[in-house]
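Reopening this one. Same input as before:
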Amino acid sequence: MLTDEDAPSASVNAIYRRITWRLIPFLFVCYVAAYLDRINIGFAQIQMRNDLGFSDAVYGLGAGIFFAGYFLFEVPSNLILERIGARKTLIRIMLLWGLTSAGMMFVKSPTTFYIMRFMLGVFEAGFFPGMIFYLTCWYPAERRGRVKSIV
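Same output, byte for byte:
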């Protein structure tokens, strides 16, 4: 049974509520952007097929090569996370992934398409673990589960 001493004070709850309202919407938007970035190739396929003449096989390999880069660089990205911290890692990931996404407009051949998709996977690797680690910096274990479920 909890006593008054065990229950968090109203001021502590207010602090965590304020942190949540400032942090979680931003992280949620970032996570949605990451998800959309992974699947947007399916939407771009229709227009790019007309403009660049890529076949379905080119798109299939391009979609798959993204996950190859993501898989290969997940651990190195997390080692960098441990070394330089969550904030700098998330900034690095978001900046490089944004530049690579913008660079997709310069794709003219299947080779550059594959390279850009692979690099997108490389730069996006570590985002989700970095976000989880960032939440551990702000929330104690007993509050973290609820916050992770929101994101």
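So the earlier flakiness isn't reproducible anymore. For the record, Helices lie at 10-52, 56-84, 86-103, 110-124, 127-138, 141-150.
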